[in-house]
Amino acid sequence: MNNNVANKIVVITGASSGLGAEAARHLAALGATVVLGARRESRIKVLADDIVAKGGKALAIETDVTDRASVQNLIDTAVKTYGRIDVLLNNAGVMPLSPLEKLRVDEWDLMIDVNIKGVLYGIAGALPHMKAQKSGHIINVSSVAGHRVLENSAVYSATKFAVRALSEGLRAEVKPYNLRTTVISPGAVQSELLNGVHDEVTAEQLRNFVPGIAISADSFARCVAFAISQPEDVDINEILFRPTKQQI
């Protein structure tokens, strides 16, 4: 049975670990060709080799989503290698939470550069190809924090609210080109995001909360596959999911 994932060319940013890596494994197992982008080149090469060893198709390309030319190279290389891009998964993200009063402005800038501008650079790179093809699917990753603002998450939430706004605006604009758009908002899912929290008080709060409820990254991978696998006339615009145990 055709799952509508098989044979698709899927470009994934932030593919070196966590949600991106698990999505790559899952989609490759369903027959997609995955093009992996991340700053940690050695890790995506290991992941690509593992996927290929299991019979899948994968290509690793070092990518910094804060650099527009780097993102453009990722997408253009995918198109040059495989002839098209069917899906862009804008997954790269960072989450250095802290109270605003700590004035960790460099971390605010990083979240804006990765979580917002990185998504925009992905859209800018993929959209011309998809318009020309009159087909394609852009999937952006927001968060539960893009639906509600919690203590110490003001800037992170702002970036994830922005991803949802960008996704809705994109959805409205690409109808003439037969494109699909999805925004996925995970709750507490196992990833390396907590490693980027450098404010000790906030980090301790998260360590006391997240590990006890977090679900595995394959939950995210299944949501991505679900959105892609729908018939081409079905556009899954938004998925919000949490662990069953998560209250907020």
Automatic annotation (TrEMBL):
<dbReference type="InterPro" id="IPR002347">
    <property type="entry name" value="SDR_fam"/>
</dbReference>
<dbReference type="InterPro" id="IPR020904">
    <property type="entry name" value="Sc_DH/Rdtase_CS"/>
</dbReference>
<dbReference type="Pfam" id="PF00106">
    <property type="entry name" value="adh_short"/>
</dbReference>
<comment type="similarity">
    <text>Belongs to the short-chain dehydrogenases/reductases (SDR) family.</text>
</comment>
<keyword id="KW-0560">Oxidoreductase</keyword>
<dbReference type="InterPro" id="IPR036291">
    <property type="entry name" value="NAD(P)-bd_dom_sf"/>
</dbReference>
<protein>
    <submittedName>
        <fullName>SDR family oxidoreductase</fullName>
    </submittedName>
</protein>
